[in-house]
Every structure is written in structure tokens, then in C-alpha cells.
Amino acid sequence: MPVAPADRVRQGVVVASVVATIVGNGLANALPFFGRTTADVSAAYPTAFTPAGYVFAIWIVIYLALLTFAGWQARPARADDPRLRAAGPWIVASGAVNVGWLLAWHADRILLSTVLLAALVVVLIRIDEHLRGGPAHATPQRERAFAAFARTPFRIYLGWASVATAANVAVAGVALGWDGAPLAPETWAILVVAVATLIALARLATRADVPFALVAIWAFVGIAVRAGIPGPLPFAAFVAVALLAGATIGRVVRPAGGRA
């Protein structure tokens, strides 16, 4: 069946959006934007919730996954998938918001960057919702490929954007000169870890979202490493890791019962 012109345009725009997002992130640090790298801005606003530097290497995974998705969805055989049609505009929007966050972050507009990162989470949730389900005639093999190449990249992305939003909120507090009173910064970090753990557990229970949980585990280990062991925050982070690891293994071993 020939590909409809509108579908071909949509596929091309999605590819261009993903490439532009990755190029924009590369230039942000290579130039860098406004004379500072992404890490420079982060270092200017230290928080207890900020993970160790190596954790941010997850962006490499996210961008490789998005590039793989972009090429996969551009195949003629995927042109008429209604899920990709519905998600297309949101995928393009996610790229625009991502670059907008970069500009705000590098320009030291921390409050604006926090709003934009929260908006990115909303957009990624919409993408995930559009990519759920599937046509009744789809074969199991086709759906496994769809889950691997379409849903998994955006679930990894959503997991990290959710963690990053919490970190951005903490940075905004520092930028405004708030020291966390009446609670200590470490106490706030523990509370955020607890809330993030509950969200990840809920995603596992209702969406079987293993990638989201794995990203949270990755971030929590990084928070513990940066905070230094022993201590209340590393202890809380490792408790969260244990809970999420157990729930993730349970989901993988017994996948039935949750909504995908």
C-alpha cells in the first residue's frame, strides 16, 4: 500500500525534530549557550537531590533510543499506524520544549526552566498514552517491536524527565535563596525520593512501566553516591532502590495484571 503524503510528511517532521533536539543539546555544551555548560549551571546551584555527575550520561541512552525510534517510525510499514499519527505532534512538541528548557537553563532563568521541564513531563505522558494499546489485527511480533522501538524510548525519557523536574524544583529553591526551612535540605531530598518512589511504583502497577522504574533506580543510586555513604539520604535512596528493584522483578516475572 502506498504511503499517504500526509503520513510521509509527519514521519519526516518527527525525524527532523529528534535530530534538531539532539543537535541543540550538543551545541548547548559545545558552544556553549550563554557562555556556560549545562553542568556549569547545575554546579552553581548545589542541592541534596542532585545525583553524581555520571548519572547524567543517561542522556546518551535517551538520545540513542530516540534516534532509533525516529528511523524505525519512518519506515513505510509504520506510516499508517494510528498510534504514531496521534503521537506525532506531541513528539515534535517534546523536542521544542526540550530545547526551550536548554535555553532557559543556560540563560539562568531557573524558574522558567522548571516550568518548561514540568511541561515536558506532561507532553511525554501524552506521548505514552497515545502509544498505548494497539489494533486488534496486530500480531504479537509486531506489537513487541512497537513496544521496544516506540514505547520504551519515551518511557525512559519520561522517567528521567520526572526525576529531573524534581531536581529542577530543588534548584529553583536554591536560586530563590530558600534554604528549605523549616526542614533541612537533606530531609526535603528524602521526601522527594519517597514521592518519586511512589510514582514509579504506581507506574509499574498501572502501566507496567519497567523503564520508568529502572531510570528511578539509576537516579537514586547516583543521589546516594553523591551524598556519601553512610547517611540518612543514602539510606533512604537505597531503600527506594530495593523497593523498586523488587517490584520491577515482580513485574517482569509476572507481567499479567497491569495495564500496558
In short:
The protein is mostly helical and 260 residues long.
Structure description:
By secondary structure, the protein is mainly alpha-helical. It has one domain. 75% of the residues lie in helices and 0% in strands. It is built from 9 helices and no strands. It has helices spanning 5-30, 38-44, 58-73, 82-106, 110-130, 140-175, 185-207, 210-227, 232-253. The chain starts with a helix and ends in a 7-residue tail after the last helix. The relative contact order is 0.12. The model has no long low-confidence stretch (mean pLDDT 94).
Number of spatially distinct domains = 1
Dominant shape: globular
Strand content: under 5%
End-to-end Cα distance, whole Å, is 30 Å
Parts with pLDDT < 50 across at least 5 consecutive residues:
none
How many DSSP helices?
Answer: 9
Largest sheet: none
Total count of strands:
0
What does the average pLDDT come to?
Answer: 94
Helix content: over 70%
Spell out the helices and strands N to C: HHHHHHHHH
Radius of gyration: 19 Å
What structural class is derived from the secondary structure elements? mainly alpha
Structural topology:
Elements lengths: L4 H26 L7 H7 L13 H16 L8 H25 L3 H21 L9 H36 L9 H23 L2 H18 L4 H22 L7
Notable features of this structure?
260 residues, mainly alpha
